[in-house]
């Protein structure tokens, strides 16, 4: 038999490698930005056209390359960072494998211009599909300019898998933000279709965070610093009240390299226990400085996952650092004596100190509907002689007022038999705990979860509107403006048609800002801006957690945000309408999230409870 195993041609091998390194335009931008930072640049400019499908250009003022190095940089496994195997355990730069430019050149048309400071002319190299088309001298400033054009021009199947321009642009912005955060001392700028999206001057980390995510982050940043013999932690965390229900604003950097780690994220989340809900995610930008000998970064093609030789210690240090930051800046709940924070110390020094108590505040705190201040007037007469045998004829109306403290032990048994006194119900339906609707049937009782049922009703309605593109809208009397970050703005622009189908009238209103002219007509809303921001957060949450198409995600998100919540009081007519609309649905048994909407309790089950 003939031999069948043979070496792959370099062009095909590079395309296979590109499948790991260059998955989309954002992946190529990440590699080019990291090369610019490694070159010692202090100013980096990014130019994007057609969400990177047509052009990604990165221009830096770094040290540049010689003509030989420029040509060698496109060879596989050609790198200036590694000389021996020991160097793999002392890496502090971004690139070291020598795969990035070779992989990009295999699936795109690349033009490289570079010049060093000690030469008058630079070098121009043009490569298409790993084939060098031109190499010649060129006059350019000191630094490097890499232009990647027509990504996947020679692999049309890969190009067909790219998403829409707004989606791809959102990924580009994400990668840009990560590199810009890791080096706040470097000035960055980003242009899309000749419009400036970001202009980030060199400065402090806090300034970089505000420039990237908006001015509303100025008041919510809490410094976090911890130095230990094993590693150092520094950065900022967000205040608990600003936590969101979606991931995306959590950043870990190890030796200035962005990483993803659910284990370390849990360390931060556990430090916020008791301060935020379980389904919320705090904002944080944390930098870990650790000896490279204790980590392995060569475990993932994109180098976003690393291994620690002692993960437990890293976990403990991060958790302790975040807890200490929350406590030091008075974010953690603490006892507040309001008069003097050194209450105990002052009490010890001066035992005669009188503590003032706001009795009005105490009364209001423990006041209940059955506790009336007027009902305790004349209590002194209770201790007068023979007060228990006093004649009723001499008592006033005030004396007959009865002070009642509710208790299960002292409750009247007859009250348990009258639902109207406990649940304020009328008719055949009533609420329990303002969360469940109890309806009478001929064969027993029906228990409906009001929130899950309403989510099912709204989901069916909104999904039909998205399919037919016929959603009624109510105009806003005072249209609010919503300022978004670049990623969220791109997401909204990608959903404009679907939002209009639901009844939202959203218009572009300047840079990264939208104007809400109208909201769905059937949504009772007091704050249009809050509704829209909540919808966007819920959409991103479902996008991260579930694999849903855009329309189904929008229908789920809006039904979740607009539905009746637990604790909301309903009258009899509203309850009956809700139950009727639920059973008019094609799938009344479950909510869009898969939760039960109702439970039937037939008479046989009820009889069995009493042994009948």
CATH names the topology of the largest domain as: Heat Shock Protein 90
The end-to-end distance, rounded to whole angstroms, is 84 Å
Oligomer: single chain
The appropriate CATH architecture of the largest domain is: 2-Layer Sandwich
Category by helix and strand content: alpha+beta
Query: Any idea what the CATH superfamily of the largest domain is called?
Result: Histidine kinase-like ATPase, C-terminal domain
Q: Provide the spatial order of strands within the biggest beta sheet.
A: 5-4-3-6-2-1-7-8
The stretches of 5 or more residues where confidence is low (pLDDT under 50) are: 334-374, 387-400, 407-427
Q: Which value, in Å, is the CA radius of gyration?
A: 33 Å
| Approximate helicity band | 25-40%
Largest sheet: 8 strands, mixed
* Number of distinct beta strands: 23
Strand content: 15-25%
**In CATH, what is the class of the largest domain?**
Alpha Beta
Walkthrough of the structure:
The chain is α+β, with helices and mostly antiparallel strands. It folds into 3 domains: 10-203, Heat Shock Protein 90 (2-Layer Sandwich), CATH 3.30.565.10; 206-328, Ribosomal Protein S5, domain 2 (2-Layer Sandwich), CATH 3.30.230.10; 447-598, Ribosomal Protein S8, Chain: A, domain 1 (2-Layer Sandwich), CATH 3.30.1370. Helix content is 33%, strand content 21%. It has 19 helices and 23 strands. A hairpin with a 2-residue loop joins β4 and β5 (131-138). α6 (165-182) runs antiparallel to α14.
């Amino acid at each position: 038999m003939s031999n069948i195993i043979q070496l792959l041609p370099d062009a095909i091998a590079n395309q296979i490698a590109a499948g790991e390194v260059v998955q989309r335009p954002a992946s190529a931008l990440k590699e080019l930005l990291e090369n610019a930072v490694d070159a010692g640049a202090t100013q980096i400019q990014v130019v994007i056209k057609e969400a990177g499908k047509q052009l990604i250009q990165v221009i830096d003022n770094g040290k540049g390359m010689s003509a030989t190095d420029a040509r060698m940089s496109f060879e596989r496994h050609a790198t200036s960072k590694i000389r021996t195997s020991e160097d793999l355990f002392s890496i502090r730069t971004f690139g070291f494998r020598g795969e990035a430019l070779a992989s990009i050149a295999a699936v795109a048309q690349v033009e490289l211009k570079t010049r060093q400071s000690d030469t008058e002319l630079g070098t121009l190299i043009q490569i298409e599909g790993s084939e060098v088309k031109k190499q010649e001298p060129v006059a350019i400033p000191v630094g490097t300019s890499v232009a990647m054009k027509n990504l996947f021009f020679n692999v049309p199947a890969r190009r067909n898998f790219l998403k829409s321009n707004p989606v791809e642009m959102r990924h580009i912005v994400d990668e840009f933000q990560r590199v810009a955060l890791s080096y706040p001392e470097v000035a960055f700028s980003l242009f899309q279709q000749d419009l400036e999206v970001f202009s980030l001057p060199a400065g402090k980390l806090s300034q970089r965070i505000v420039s990237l995510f908006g001015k509303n982050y100025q008041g919510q940043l809490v410094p976090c610093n911890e130095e230990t013999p094993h590693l150092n932690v520094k950065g900022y965390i967000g205040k608990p009240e600003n936590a969101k229900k979606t991931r995306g604003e959590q950043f870990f950097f190890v030796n200035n390299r962005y990483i993803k780690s659910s284990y370390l994220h849990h360390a931060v989340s556990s430090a916020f226990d008791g301060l935020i809900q379980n389904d919320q995610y705090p904002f944080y930008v944390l930098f870990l400085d650790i000896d490279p000998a204790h980590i392995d970064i060569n475990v993932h093609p994109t180098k976003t996952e690393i291994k620690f030789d002692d993960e437990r210690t890293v976990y403990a240090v991060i958790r302790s650092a975040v807890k200490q930051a929350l406590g030091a800046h008075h974010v953690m709940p603490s006892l507040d004596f309001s008069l003097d924070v050194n209450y105990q110390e002052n009490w010890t020094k001066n035992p005669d100190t009188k503590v003032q108590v706001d009795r009005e505040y105490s009364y209001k705190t423990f006041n209940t509907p059955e506790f009336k201040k007027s009902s305790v007037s004349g209590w002194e007469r209770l201790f007068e002689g023979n007060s228990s045998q006093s004649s009723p004829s001499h008592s006033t109306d005030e004396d007959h007022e009865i002070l009642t403290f509710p208790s299960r032990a002292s409750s009247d048994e007859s009250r348990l038999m009258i639902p109207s006194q406990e649940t304020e119900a009328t008719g055949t339906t009533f609420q329990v705990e303002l969360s469940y609707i109890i309806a009478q049937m001929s064969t027993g009782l029906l228990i409906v979860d009001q929130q899950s049922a309403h989510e099912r009703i709204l989901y069916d309605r909104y999904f039909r509107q998205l399919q037919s593109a016929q959603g009624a809208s109510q105009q806003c009397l005072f249209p609010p403006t919503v300022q978004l970050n670049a990623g969220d703005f791109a997401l909204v622009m990608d959903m404009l048609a679907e939002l209009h189908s639901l009844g939202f009238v959203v218009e572009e209103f300047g840079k990264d800002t939208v104007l809400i002219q109208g909201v769905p007509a059937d949504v009772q809303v007091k704050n249009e801006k809050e509704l829209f921001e909540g919808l966007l957060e819920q959409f991103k949450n479902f996008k991260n957690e579930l694999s849903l198409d855009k329309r189904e995600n929008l229908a789920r998100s809006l039904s979740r945000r607009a539905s009746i919540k637990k604790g909301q009081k309903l009258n009899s007519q509203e309850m009956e309408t809700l139950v009727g609309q639920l059973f008019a649905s094609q799938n009344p048994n479950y909510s869009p999230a898969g939760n039960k909407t109702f439970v039937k309790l037939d008479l046989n089950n009820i009889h069995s409870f009493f042994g009948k």
